[in-house]
Amino acid sequence: MKFSDQLEQRFATMVTHYPTKRSVLVPMLLYIQDELGAVTDEAIHEIAQRTELTDLEVRNVISYYSMLRTRPVGKYNLQVCTNVSCLLRGADDIFEHCKKKLGIGNKESTPDGLFHLEEVECIGACSWAPALMMNYEFHENLTPAKIDELIDGLKKKEEQ
Amino acid sequence: MADVTLTVDGKKLTVPAGTLLIEACKSTGIEIPSFCYYPGLSLQGACRMCLVEVEKMPKLQTACTTPVAEGMVVTTESDKIKQARKAMLELVLANHPLDCPVCDAGGECELQDMTFKYGAAESKFMDLKNHRDEQQWSPVVYFDRPRCILCYRCIRVCGEGMDVWALGIQNRNVGSVIAPNKEDHLECEECGMCIDICPVGALTSGAYRYKTRPWEMKHVGTVCTHCGDGCKTTLGVRRADTGMEIVRGDNRDKSGINGDFLCIKGRYAFDFANSSDRIQQPLIKHEGKFVAATWEQALDRIASKFKQVLASDGPTAVGVIGSNRTSNEENYLLQKFARLVLGTNNIDHHRTADFPAFASALAGNANATASMRDVFDAPAILLIGNNPTDQHPLLAWQIRTNVRLHRAKLYVVNSYPIKLRRQAAAFAQIASGSEGSVAQFLGGNDAAGDAAVTPQFSREALSQLRDELKNEKDLVVIFGSELRGNDVTALVNFGLAQGAKFICLGDYANSRGAADMGLYPDMLPGYAPVASATSFHEDWVDEIPKSPGLDLLQMVDAAKEGKLKALYVVGSNPIARYNVDPFALSKAFVVVQDMFLTETASIADVVLPIANAYEKGGTFTNTCGDVQMLKKAGEFAGVRNDFECIVRIADRMGYDVHKLVPFGGGGTRADMGQSRGAQSGEADRHAVWLAEHNLEPKMSPYDPTAMLDEIQRLVPGYDISRLGLLSGHDEHTQLVQITGATGSGHPELVLPSNDTLFTSGTLGRYSPTLNSVMERYSTTAAQVAGD
Question: Does the structure's ipTM exceed the value 0.90?
């Protein structure tokens, strides 16, 4: 398979950065996921061929990292941190509120395919706990009201 | 590397720098427990069992990943370590089911042994165990997830060892699980190495699981009867209705040339021996149908018919076809029987390599043949033709391991992109069928090189290959049956000039032995022409017929024309192998000795039920010329071995079996000068040889070791250490004494078996395991396995 021109170009330069081909695997998986929404079977096979690995080895890596996935999730992926710092500042309540607000559980998507909710380990935003990541965007010092604002805002944006 | 001195438990020891602490301790007799460490595989550091205290290092260190250092002071037993080991075991056992009473590994489980030794009798864990159902990944491999202790040995041996990479690890920490390459099943070479190497019962084999307990078996180390590599295999046998049934094959004791390696055939395809299709009684054809007979009736019928044909049509009207899977003793006896008892040189076998051309090309040069062990540590290897991954799995393993551990330089010349190209420093994909031309080119015939050139492989590349090869010291040259006749000579001459060693690849367990023992119409044992003056002529009492006999195909033609009146087929299936028209043999009296009613046995007049190589003693010579001893493991009611049958037939024909098999005391030919003739005035040479070698005369004509005595005494190259053989070693035969050997002159008779990983000639068809694996791969044939 062929990726977008931009990604193809990125691959071509990245592969020259490492002494071995397989080293380009993890960054490539992230870029592929950004482009396709998930690392599909087809993409796994393609990247395995290009890095001279077996499909199985690529799957091993994907399954190791929680931020890599093989099935597409909702358009907005809410990753709520419940690790120590966030936990101490009420992350559990935040996560529960997200569940109620969206009507879905951990690692589930809303039926319209708009939202996906996930409980994750530390995202490195301890100073502004509790925090969540919406796709690559950080939302910090969360309160239930802030969550409502975020979700409603996104919904409204989609309706337009 | 320089040596390093360190102290372990108060003992001073000196080991080479770079040695791992765990190995250094082992060398001084201190055992450090570990699950994930496995010699020869990459380091893992996963199981944390090998923790030791090292002075001035703050925490406990893993001995399996720590190299020794000068002045290091190590403690391997202390309260702290004891506590750590116990805690590790407790963690491993947290989710490990305690189903030891029904687990295949129970009784030979490393986790059991360690728990017993390092103690983790109580557990602080109260949680429910996380159960998962067992999965079947292939006809051969089963996976029981909760038993897995995540040592990664299976993953490493499959990837690094076998170069298959069919196993991986998915998820992480407590969720980690060993995963097969096709989501819920495996697509691989089915070698079973992962099962063998598993320290617990997480991976179990379809062939053995839930069949028996390890302590109920008797374990017998013998030689595999499939391909020509000669792997040692330890067979687990157990009482059964038919005698002793073989239930398991492995080589956990790492004896033999193969270490713990075995392929699917060695590990699982012993099951032909337990097949219900085996013949258990002699059969005589009566009005077109087989009727069960007694041994007496069958042997009488054979002997009287042979005698009748000899009397009416002479020795040229009888023929003998030998086997690639019978022992050296049986092969030697068979050709002696043909030449002396029947008086004919009409003897041949299914040739799978041009060994005569090889012997003649070597022309008696010393140290010119490589043993299977040499392939493991040779600095450079040239492989022309063949596909060892399929046809010689051990050879492929040796090559891969050598490249991985010793960085050997591998050159592969083949017309197909065979899997070993992945280990090759240089891979030359030459034009189809041009292996011979390459050999000629290497040998100096520049014009021959043109035939090998392809758009991808230029003439310049070929010349460069030759130049590079010429600079390789201690090269081992391995060639397949693509090279025959003059091509072999050219290649051998090329290599000999730089001191290379050679291996000529033949296909079945004892094809080299069959060739060495002279199952040829024109050659005696040791590739000596029948008409030449050899020690056999001097030694055998009766005269050897002078003119060469008929080869296999000529015998079939003669039978068709009605000229060949009797055919004696021992352990061979020419009708299927050579695609012979079964009606061609309808006029002749055909005797077949076999385990099964093969295509050839079905058209025979008398069939004798025969023991296979797992059910008898004797020796096999692998394709490299390494001789090993067979040990009787299985037993099957009603069968006898080929050796006994041949002797009995000779006896029934009225031949003095003393002249055939040297047995009994008191020099049979010591005449001390009273008589005249070739041997007058000499003592019994056999007795002298025995005395010289501290061996006793054998007391039975059915004892194959009596024949081994004669083989060792007379067959060039076979004067090897008997002590070594008896203690289970492989003894390399040199073809040094063979000078003036004739090339066969019939390269066209060489017919490779073209066995795949999952076939093994006629034998393989009777193996349920091989059949089940093949069935599976024929339904999912769309993808290429493991490559």
Answer: no
